[in-house]
């Protein structure tokens, strides 16, 4: 439709006369009615969930550890693998003997209940820590072989007020590693020799635990002292995951079991309508899922003979009740919005959306309010007829432990598109 100069001038006049607070009060009308400004509420939207088949878990600033059964996303088990680098390459003198070896697990955040302690199995990796593909990444389904017997299994508890937990490793393992660091045959002659002799560690929870974001500041601390001395002073050596000169490879193996959830037995890269899953669609980085949104037909809106201007088009997307809580499982508060024409192939990045309203107490007023004016305008005018919206949790430097479930909560709390139209006479 062509808009003449007089129409543009009228538009400027109209838009300057209306504040947002007034536009909110515009009544809904039928397209056949005479009008000066129209507010159209379009609720024929279809939410859907799409599961993908892979997630890169290497190259992150942290690792994930834990095992937890969530009624929405399913049971998630996160198993981190990581290698080390010594902070000093000076060989330890043969006259020294081991006092103790401590693994210090640094963590930055947790999800789910941390009240109960849990069993942590610590194993030594038994093969070279090499990338399994040309992309030089580790995916969530990959793993490394570990030695048959674990180094130890320890009972630990995570306290959110603290930033680390210490596990003293058995003396047998400590003496074996300490012996390789001593004398003329030390593995400290180079980083290659060190990592050939000690590939790294694997951590695995036995039973149930919260999900724990482990920092790459995790380290081994070796305490040692002089043999046969009466008043011996203790020395220490730090072997870190984080090392500026010799970065360590890390990744997290993730097992996901959706049995017992509304999303059980679903195929990947297939549209799963929210009508099949309790009027709910799921975006979950750990669960490999994203949310799709089909706006339905908007062609009738574009049949105004005089021409029109879309002043505003906003998407109202409620967060599904009983899928989050304020303390143990907070709702994900941001997501990326794309336009797609084919599942798995992102076409155009549209915007970053953040939570507009949060109601932790009653969960009746938690929703996203997205400005979709440009995209809706194109759809009404016939551009991108085959495209839909694609929403996923924002990828970050760390794996996102949260998830987002959108859907219908009631007849008034349901996904909808609100459009403000200004005619051009």
UniProtKB/TrEMBL annotation:
A Pfam family of this chain: DUF4270
Superkingdom, taxonomy of origin: Bacteria
UniProt protein name: DUF4270 family protein
Source organism (scientific name): Algoriphagus aestuariicola
């Amino acid at each position: 439709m062509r808009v003449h100069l007089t129409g543009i001038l009228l538009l400027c006049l109209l838009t300057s006369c209306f504040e947002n607070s007034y536009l909110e009060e515009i009544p809904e009308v039928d397209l056949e009615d005479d009008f000066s400004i129209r507010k159209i509420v379009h609720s024929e939207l279809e939410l859907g969930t799409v599961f993908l088949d892979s997630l890169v878990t290497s190259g992150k600033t942290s690792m994930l550890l834990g095992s937890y059964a969530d009624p929405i996303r399913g049971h998630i088990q996160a198993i981190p693998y990581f290698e080390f680098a010594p902070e000093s390459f000076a060989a330890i003198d043969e006259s020294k003997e081991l006092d103790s070896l401590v693994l210090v697990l640094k963590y930055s955040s947790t999800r789910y209940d941390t009240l109960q302690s849990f069993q942590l199995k610590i194993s030594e990796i038994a093969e070279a820590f090499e990338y399994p593909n040309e992309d030089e990444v580790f995916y969530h389904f990959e793993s490394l072989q570990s030695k048959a017997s674990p180094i130890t299994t320890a009972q630990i508890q995570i306290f959110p007020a603290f930033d680390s937990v210490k596990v003293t490793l058995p003396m047998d393992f400590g003496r074996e590693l300490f012996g390789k660091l001593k004398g003329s045959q030390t593995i400290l002659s180079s980083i290659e020799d060190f990592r050939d002799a000690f590939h790294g560690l694997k951590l695995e929870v036995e039973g149930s635990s919260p999900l724990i974001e482990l920092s790459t500041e995790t380290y081994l601390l070796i305490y040692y002292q002089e043999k046969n001395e009466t008043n011996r002073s203790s020395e220490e050596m730090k072997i870190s995951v984080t090392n500026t000169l010799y970065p360590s490879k890390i990744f997290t193996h993730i097992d996901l079991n959706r049995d017992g959830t509304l999303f059980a037995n679903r195929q990947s890269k297939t549209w799963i309508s929210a009508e099949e899953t309790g009027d709910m669609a799921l975006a979950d980085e750990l669960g490999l899922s994203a949310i799709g949104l089909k706006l339905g037909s908007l062609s009738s809106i574009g049949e105004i003979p005089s021409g029109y201007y879309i002043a505003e088009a906003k998407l109202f997307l409620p967060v599904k009740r009983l899928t989050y809580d304020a303390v143990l499982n907070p709702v994900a508060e941001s997501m990326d919005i794309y336009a797609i024409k084919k599942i798995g192939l992102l076409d155009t990045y549209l915007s970053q959306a953040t939570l507009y309203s949060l109601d932790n107490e009653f969960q009746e007023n938690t929703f996203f309010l997205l400005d979709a004016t440009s995209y809706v305008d194109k759809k009404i005018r016939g551009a991108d007829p085959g495209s839909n919206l694609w929403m996923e949790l924002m990828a970050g430097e760390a794996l996102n432990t949260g998830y987002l479930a959108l859907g219908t909560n009631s007849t008034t709390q349901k996904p909808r598109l609100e459009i403000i139209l200004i005619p051009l006479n």
